[in-house]
TrEMBL record:
GO terms for cellular component: cytoplasm. Belongs to the QueG family. It is found in: Cytoplasm. Its EC number is 1.17.99.6. It comes from Flavobacterium croceum DSM 17960. One of its GO terms (biological process) is tRNA queuosine(34) biosynthetic process. PROSITE patterns: 4FE4S_FER_1, 4FE4S_FER_2. This is Epoxyqueuosine reductase. It is an enzyme of class 1 (oxidoreductase). Monomer. PANTHER family: EPOXYQUEUOSINE REDUCTASE.
Length: 310
């Protein structure tokens, strides 16, 4: 006979699967002791660049009880975004996670549904949903709950499905059965480190965020550094290089989420099409997309930066 925590855990994992999540793992809500010195060192090295928000809420990033009163469990969830169809090879490139609708909205809706289900089935449970927009170390929690290991490119990697997925959490004041961390399977491989054109992976498991192509094309609001121009390899929003070369991503399977399907122009546009894009076309192709973070002006800046290279 199952105890209550085990019964509740089975209910939650079953519903997470029904909602379309790739995987669900659960860990005890407690202070992240191992991550504290790593995060402090990373910030002290200024690896976050102009992402000043990373300096905020240091304690909350490490202690879930400061985010949810009486927190007992962190429910980590993965949602696949690997696309079946990709952009033409000869075009400027957009990171695969931004092909469809902004993942923040898609994940938030699923998390709200999961929390509502928990409250309906179990009773008075308090919790909060977190999708990459609050001070939560999602990769650390996902690793702690056995969903994968943090690779040398600092992405969460799983043996069965690689790393093309989003990570989100529900932090709840409900005691559940906790999963165990998995083992690291990067071995002696340095494919991601060797392939990074900006040398952003400064050492295994440490990424200088302020050197990453994703940072330059999304976070940096000033002019792009000219010495980086030849290194961008045609990326105009985000970068997938360290994931594309990871051997574990040969196991990636296409997602089944309709909201992540791209506008057909995104797949078929040539470099010339991107260079001549208008505000109207930008709004149409990237309606409800994460690409809108750059705004039209930022997107055009990125395209022009690469166009001027030739």
């Amino acid at each position: 006979m199952y105890n209550l925590a085990e019964k509740h855990t089975r209910l939650i994992k079953s519903e997470a699967k029904r909602l379309g999540f790739l995987a669900c793992g659960i860990s005890k809500a407690e202070f992240l002791e191992e991550e504290a010195p790593r995060l402090e060192h990373w910030l002290n090295q200024n690896y976050h660049g102009e992402m000043a928000y990373m300096e905020n809420h240091f304690d909350k990033r490490l202690n879930p009880k400061l985010l949810v009163d009486g927190a007992q469990s962190v429910i980590s969830l993965l949602l696949n975004y690997y696309p079946e169809n990709k952009q033409r090879d000869s075009s400027y490139k957009i990171s695969k996670y931004a092909y469809g609708e902004d993942y923040h909205f898609v994940l938030k809706d699923k998390l709200k549904s999961l929390l509502a289900y928990i409250q309906e089935q179990i009773g008075e449970v308090h919790g909060r949903a977190f999708v990459d927009s609050a001070p939560v170390l999602d990769k650390a929690w996902a690793a702690k709950s056995g969903l994968g290991w943090v690779g040398k490119n600092s992405n969460l990697i799983t043996r069965k499905t690689g790393s093309f997925y989003f990570i989100a959490e529900l932090i709840v004041d409900l005691k559940l059965e906790y999963d165990n961390p998995t083992t690291n399977h990067c071995g002696s491989c340095t494919a991601c480190i060797d392939a990074c054109p900006t040398e952003a992976i400064v050492s295994p498991y440490v990424v200088n965020g302020s050197q990453c192509i994703s940072y330059y094309t999304i976070e940096l609001k000033n002019n792009l550094p000219e010495d980086m121009q030849v290194r961008f390899q045609d990326w105009i929003f985000g970068c997938d290089i360290c994931q594309d070369v990871c051997p574990w991503n040969k196991f990636s399977k296409p997602h089944q989420e309709e909201k992540f399907l791209p506008h057909e122009n995104l797949l078929h546009f040539t470099k010339k099409d991107w260079e001549e894009i208008t505000q109207e076309t930008f709004n149409e192709v990237f309606k409800n997309s994460a690409v809108k973070r750059t705004k039209f002006q930022g997107f055009v800046r990125n395209v022009k930066f690469l166009k001027d290279k030739f």
